[in-house]
């Protein structure tokens, strides 16, 4: 059996286990939910960290996302994979945090400008990409993470962030230009 | 830097973005805090079956004593629920619409110097007509909240405004004479 087939079998086994944990968590089994947390913790944290650009805040948001997932798990109908559902919920939690708690709209321009808070050192693409993403303005960064890393479409990003598709495209263009400038 | 070089540069960045690790380890596990937050909800399951059983008993007794009243109440609740759901949907759509429209108007104002004044007046006139239609439909809905035809009409008007905004945004380069 090839290595690829072994990996596929392993993926299938994980998915089956996730399905069982989800069913049990829906019935109130907290141990099953802990298994889901252990499986998806790192992936959810990575999403929070890249969107929020702050390690401590990312941990808080990850915690909130899992609490929200527990409360809403009955609404997961299995139309998509559990992970996909969880990542969507997580991105909504992060967006909601920045919009509601910081009382701001995602429309309009970012107030902070790249260049104000970091040095003009030349960055190395392989070593400093995470840093360059973290230094992007808030909205541009979130849209870049959702579109270019997580693979969301502009339509979905616009709905999530309550902005027009045009604004989403403009912010992505801005983020890409700023990244290019950082590695030029 | 030429356009080709810029594209090559972006391709390298894009490739690096795709190669970023999908997982990152937090400094510490948050499971203890999560378990604390969700635990009270789990404990509720102890008394929940009794509460459900008690509700069922009360419901059966009520039905036995007054079937007619119960049916009327159910029908009223269904109507009330449908009305609330429709109102929530309208409020949500209205909120989204206001944000999208505010962004559009801002972009239109920014682009106004490059556009033909007659075109801008035409767009603003169309938006005003749609806004007035929405106000009229909402006034009618306040008098007849359950009128499905009016609800449909309001949704259609939202869609029409959205289409107008999208078509104008798509044709900005053409309106500026760039195309």
Automatic annotation (TrEMBL), chain A:
InterPro entries: RNA_pol_sigma-70-like (IPR039425), RNA_pol_sigma-70_dom (IPR014284), RNA_pol_sigma70_r2 (IPR007627), RNA_pol_sigma70_r4_t2 (IPR013249), RNA_pol_sigma_r2 (IPR013325), RNA_pol_sigma_r3/r4-like (IPR013324), WH-like_DNA-bd_sf (IPR036388)
GO biological process: DNA-templated transcription initiation
Assigned protein family: Belongs to the sigma-70 factor family. ECF subfamily.
Classification via Gene3D superfamilies: 1.10.1740.10, Winged helix-like DNA-binding domain superfamily/Winged helix DNA-binding domain (1.10.10.10)
Superkingdom in the source lineage: Bacteria
Source species: Pleionea litopenaei
Name the record gives this protein: Sigma-70 family RNA polymerase sigma factor
Record-linked Pfam families: Sigma70_r2, Sigma70_r4_2
Positions of the RNA polymerase sigma factor 70 region 4 type domain: 127-179
Claim: Transcription is one of the keywords in the record: yes
Sample GO molecular function, one term: sigma factor activity
Keywords from the named record: Sigma factor, Transcription, Transcription regulation
Positions of the RNA polymerase sigma-70 region domain: 36-102
